[in-house]
Design a protein that fits this description.
The structure holds two protein chains of two kinds.
Chain A lengths: L1 E2 L16 E6 L5 E6 L7 H8 L7 E4 L14 E2 L2
Parallel strand pairs in A: 1-5
Antiparallel strand pairs in A: 2-3, 2-4
Chain B lengths: L3 E3 L3 E3 L10 E2 L6 E3 L6 E5 L2 E6 L5 E3 L7 E2 L3 E8 L5 E6 L1 E8 L2 E6 L9 E7 L8 E8 L2 E9 L6 E3 L4 E7 L1
Antiparallel strand pairs in B: 1-2, 3-4, 4-5, 5-6, 6-7, 7-8, 9-10, 9-17, 11-12, 12-15, 13-17, 14-15, 15-16
The chains are: A alpha+beta, B mainly beta.
Chain lengths: 80, 172
């Protein structure tokens, strides 16, 4: 299963932290999904800058783009 | 004993005691006092109930039976591990990272001073499993990676599984 859809946004538009996720390819060949903590007060971009491992490409996507059926979670892949 | 009040010293020169605190209101045996060098004490009814000691530790008697140092929880999180993974509530956590089935990284807002912190963790099991356990994969000052799973074989083989809820508290 590929996570293809990214949310279009502009810098001045910002993103709703609660409804956003950050995805990046992990070292196991799958995809890691960062789930933000609303209480931390950071923007989704700030969370990405802090919590995505250095050097990893990443995308900010809408939570609706992440499958809720996790039966084959370890087969999910990151797509450029 | 005289008290000094001026623009240089502020209010100074009275240490007080638990029974007669230096700073108090109309209740004469309840207030703030200075029991020794680099120490700030708090008293109620003439009895010490709290203190910042000379090392900066906060001590209090909140049912302990004596005034003792309190070791606070430095980070905590409660999140859904199934369906749409989401944080239910947290403190000192910027995010969790869903790395795969039953594998998560908790990312701290303010890092721990070293990797020797301790965690307490519990899961709420999915209906399909009676017992799901947690395992620490990696300690780092800025995060901790954990996994949840269940025993599948006679030799103790483990299989990862998403827990309904995952609860983690970090102490240092």
């Amino acid at each position: 299963m590929l996570l293809m859809s990214t949310l279009q946004y502009s810098a001045d538009q910002g993103l709703n932290v609660m409804n956003s996720r950050i995805i990046y390819p992990n070292d196991e060949g799958g995809v890691s999904i960062i789930v933000p903590a609303i209480e931390c007060g950071l923007t989704i971009e700030e969370i990405a800058a802090k919590d995505v491992p250095a050097g990893k490409p990443f995308k900010i996507v809408d939570v609706a783009d992440i499958p809720s059926d996790r039966t084959f979670r370890n087969a999910w892949e990151y797509s450029e | 004993m005289s008290v000094i009040i001026d623009g240089t010293n502020g209010i100074s020169d009275v240490d007080g005691s638990a029974s007669t605190p230096a700073i108090r209101g109309t209740d004469t045996n309840t207030g703030i006092y200075f029991p020794g060098a680099d120490r700030i004490g708090f008293s109620e009814g003439g009895t010490q109930v709290g203190e910042f000691d000379a090392s900066g530790n906060f001590q209090f008697n909140s049912g302990y039976g004596s005034v003792a140092t309190a070791y606070g929880c430095r980070a905590w999180v409660n999140f859904n591990g199934t369906s749409t993974v989401a944080i239910r509530a947290s403190g000192n956590v910027t995010s969790i990272t869903d790395n795969g089935t039953g594998n998560y990284t908790v990312n701290f807002t303010i890092s721990m001073p070293d990797v020797n912190f301790s965690i307490a963790g519990y899961t709420v099991n999915p209906a399909s499993r009676a017992l799901v356990f947690g395992d620490v994969n990696t300690y780092a000052t800025g995060s901790i990676r954990v996994s949840t799973g269940y025993i599948t074989g006679f030799n103790g083989e483990a299989t990862s599984i998403d827990a309904t809820y995952v609860n983690i508290a970090v102490f240092r």
